[in-house]
Amino acid sequence: MQTSTLNTLRAAASAVSNPAFSVESRNGRPDFELAAALQKVSPQQQAKAQKTATDFEAMFLNSMFSQMTSGLKGEGPFGDTPGTGVWRSMLTEQYTKNFAKAGGVGVAADVYRTLITQQAKTIRTA
Predict the structure, then answer these.
(1) Angle subtended at Cα 121 by Cα 7 and Cα 103, rounded to the nearest 5 degrees
(2) Contacts of 105 (CB under 8 A, 6+ apart)
(3) Where are the alpha helices (DSSP H) in the chain?
(4) Global pTM?
(5) Residue closest to 105 by CA, chosen among 113, 115, 96, 114
(6) Pairwise CA distance, residues 13 & 102, whole Å
(7) Contact at 8 Å (CB) between 4 and 34?
(8) pLDDT tens, 1-57?
């Protein structure tokens, strides 16, 4: 019984490519609820949920990084010009997207888990 459950968890975990979205990564223990939900939700929906969760984390990090750099004056390579603020916002956006893709701070994994379990609850079983 326990071996078949672990095989199910491994199969579900291998379907998700990013280790941050792994079934076995919830507090270092298997997440049986997520494993069951992943079996009900299609791979296309899983990919969409993963992208949505990563984008949400990037947006969250962008807000954090923007606040962090809002007090900086333009003493960098571009000086204190009107374009510095625009350049800084674009640079911050790219930093946050790359940071989120690399695993971020863990917000995306929880958002992904919530999206998948909510989608699985809406799917009717025969």
Answers:
(1) 60
(2) 57, 61
(3) 2-15, 32-40, 43-69, 82-101, 107-122
(4) 0.69
(5) 96
(6) 18
(7) no
(8) 455 444 444 444 444 455 556 665 666 778 888 989 999 999 999 999 999 998 898
**35, two tokens:** 């494993």
Angle at 64 between CA 108 and CA 113, to 5 degrees: 10
CA distances from 47 to 38, 41, 112, 116 (A): 11, 10, 10, 10
CB atoms within 10 A of CB 93: 16
DSSP 8-state secondary structure symbol assigned to residue 104: T
> Which residue reads 């298997």 in tokens?
30
Token pair belonging to 75: 């003493």
List the Cα angle 67/73/76 in 5-degree steps: 110
Q: Measure CA of the first residue to CA of the last residue in the chain; give whole Å.
A: 24
Q: How many residues are recorded in the chain?
A: 126
For the chain, the domains span: 2-122
